[in-house]
Amino acid sequence: MKNTIKVERARHDMTQAQLADKIQVSRQTIHAIEQSKYVPSTVLALRLAHVFQTRVEELFELEVSDWQR
Predict the structure, then answer these.
(1) How high is the pLDDT of residue 13?
(2) Domain spans of the chain?
């Protein structure tokens, strides 16, 4: 799953640690999401969208491989 978290974080002049603090996760979780190594829960995705004042669909995009089992 592609995401634009790193781009949005840069646009808002925010470090990984600052974003992590705002959504109550570890900095390592933010890093893993940005590297597409971790897919956040619905609640976490909604928190991210709230912080960046956007929709979840603007932050995350399904890839073809996400449809395959």
Answers:
(1) 98
(2) 2-63
